[in-house]
Amino acid sequence: MNKKTAIVMFNLGGPDNLDAVKPFLFNLFYDPAIITVRNPFRWIIAKIISSRRAPIAQDIYRLIGGKSPILEQTLKQSSAIENKLNSNGDQDYKCFVFMRYWHPFAKEIVNDVKSYQPDNIILLPLYPQYSVTTTGTGLIEWNKQAQNINLNIPYTVIKEYPDHEFFVDTIADMIREKIKGVKNPSQYRLLLSAHGLPKKTIEAGDPYQKQVELTCEAVIKSLNNENLDHVVCYQSRVGPLEWIGPSTDDEIERAGKDQKNIIMVPVAFVSEHSETLVELDIEYKELADEVGIDDYIRIETVGAQQKFIDGLAELVLRNYRN
CB-based contacts of 180: which residues, under 8 Å, 6+ apart? Predict the structure, then answer.
């Protein structure tokens, strides 16, 4: 009988209908990795923020069909990886997906993994760059739920892959494809945009910013064009804290002043959701129009691109063999 390996993939998640927006936001801001104060104050803060932001967030999700597409896209990725891994036939692999802040939660999926009775488990975050606010909190939640049901099976964690060739080359290939249709690439600036974090998180030792910069450096190297105008920037700032920069908003305005067109490249997201479909495609496009940018091109996330899927599958195999 073939040995069985469970691959547990996880991402942030998103509301699956408009009524889910408020509880989704509460779950997000109630996470101690996001709001780093003790209870009952964290609970109170999460209640206040989720109540205030829910109507605004619901309007955002209305623009993309009333829900987040992140789960469907993640399931598509998991199916592709599972098919790739099982094509050799020497082992049995099954992918499971949980989301950190909305269904399916880790507590729902952990029983499915236990029922599968795998010989080992590989935890595969869909965050290329490590942060305690993303991969870190996902691993904490998984371990908590696994302990609750005594899931005592050996497991391996794929912690990050910020500059792995399969990831950066997929992004570079997608940029190249877009540049083919551009008459004068020198008139364009690449904005390599990642989700931001508060400065205090980075100053506490979180490696996220360094790993984002590592990704961007590797993408530019893969493009083999050192003279390509580009800048690393950060989006999605919320709250009163100082965040890492430069901000994507500021860089769009600067591009306008410099009379540069924009190629917007998400470098920390591997699937489409509100931060790409609304923030990048709608809000930042409107800002680009306001500051006089003639052409605004957005590169899609890597999604289920074959090179990305093959690379993740190889990463799983490499960790299994180790």
Answer: none
